Amino acid sequence: AADTVSKTPLTLLGLGAMGTALAGAWLAAGHPLTVWNRTAAKAGPLAARGAAVAAGAAEAVAANRLVVVCLLDDASIEEALAGADLTGKDVVNLITGTPGTARARAAWATARGARYLDGGIMAVPPMIGIPQAGPYVFYSGSRDLFEEHRATLAAPADARYVGADAGFAALHDVALLSAMYGMFGGVAHAFALVRGESVDPRELAPLLSSWLTAMAGSVAATAEHLAAGDYTGGVASSLAMQVAGVPTFLRTAEEQGVSAELLTPYFDLMRRRLAADPARHGAEDLTGVVDLLRG
Ligand code: FVH
After folding, report:
1. Are 18 and 155 part of one and the same domain?
2. Rounded to whole angstroms, how far apart are CA atoms 62 and 12?
3. Ligand 1 centroid vs 18 CA: distance in angstroms?
4. Which residue, 66, 146, 147, 155, is the most exposed by fewest CB within 10 angstroms?
5. Number of domains comprising the chain
6. Residue 190 alpha carbon to ligand 1 centre in Å
7. Which of residues 171, 202, 237 is at a domain's end?
């Protein structure tokens, strides 16, 4: 039945790793697809699967109302779309950028007569088109555009609208990715500690994974504390206790010949929070670090 239902035609600009994965998902879902890429050879395999290949970005934009952009960065959008007529187009920008860049790009698109939606992709290319892998995209900007094209946008990855402010998709995207890099830093430190010892990293890996999964429960607790404005409820591991343990982590790193540079910025914030008011903050959890980061 899916084959007989007419699917929205769309244009995709950019056939890098992510653009190619998106294109494959839209073709697999039966959407007529026009593609353009600066390096034309990358379009060959998609043409063989039925995609129309435009000779230039302006031609690709002219082909369809819905235009999805998956280029490297904001500068490449400026360059690629300089000569394109966006009047009456629905532009969906999937580059990873800042909230400010997204807001400026929304104003740019609106001034050129287009509706604009910004997207932050929470997936890597192999997850695209595979719902069980859990890929999704944050969208923000024109709600009308989102509602009108929701089904098309959801073909490669689940579509989650996070607000009319065009910067919100990037804000959510970068917030989640920032947390991911913090986790990567902790993982790197853990492997560095055992490296050189007779500990097989493949044996540490499942221990590390399950510990991080268990600790992910703290995310919801932090959110509850921030919402309540009180960081002491249900605290099992107080800030005072954790700050007392900091020298153990630093000495272990030293004993193992490992730089503690990934950990010390966080430990410094914990200590500053406690030092500001030991009697009050000592009974909290680590939520107070958020306030220190906000200055
Ligand atoms: N791949 C990933 O894991 C992440 C997942 C989350 C989202 N990101 C963002 O998606 C954007 C595209 O990423 P990508 O993985 O497709 O990136 P590349 O494989 O490097 O392809 C880049 C494409 O951009 C074209 N391009 C670059 N500069 C220009 C330009 N000045 N004018 C026109 N096109 C340009 C490039 O063309 P070519 O090199 O093949 O000619 C590729 O099509 C990105 O924002 C990620 O942060 C991906």
Report:
1. yes
2. 12
3. 7
4. 147
5. 2
6. 32
7. 171
Q: How far is CA 82 from CA 37, 78, 85, in A?
A: 15, 6, 9
Average pLDDT, integer, range 127-138? 98
Q: What is the CATH number of the domain that holds 233?
A: 1.10.1040.10
Per-residue pLDDT tens over the stretch 35-82: 999 999 999 999 999 999 999 999 999 999 999 999 999 999 999 999
Q: How far apart are CA 273 and CA 280, in angstroms?
A: 10
User: Is 183 within a domain?
Assistant: no
Query: Which of residues 171, 196, 227 is at a domain's end?
Result: 171
Structure tokens at 273: 């929070």
CA dist 245 → 110, 240, 251, 258 (Å): 54, 9, 10, 18
| Spatial contact of 194 and 121, defined as CB atoms under 8 Å apart | no
Give the whole-angstrom CA distance, residue 161 versus residue 163.
6
Q: What is the pLDDT of residue 295?
A: 76
Q: Name the residue of 12, 13, 18 to mutate for ligand 1: max ligand atoms within 8 A of Cβ.
A: 18
Are 42 and 108 found together in one domain? Answer: yes
Residue 1, pLDDT score:
40
Are both 163 and 42 inside the same structural domain?
Answer: yes
Pair (17, 112) in one structural domain: yes
Q: Domain residues for 249?
A: 216-293
ipTM of the assembly? 0.99
Would residue 211 count as lying in a domain? no
Instruction: CATH number of the domain at 106, please.
Output: 3.40.50.720
In angstroms, what is the span from residue 96 Cα to ligand 1's centroid? 9
- DSSP per position, 125-179: GGGTT-GGG--EEEEEE-HHHHHHHHHHHTTTSEEEE--SSTTHHHHHHHHHHHH
Q: Is 141 left (phi over 0), alpha (psi -120 to 50) or beta?
A: left
Q: Say yes or no: 35 and 162 in one domain.
A: yes
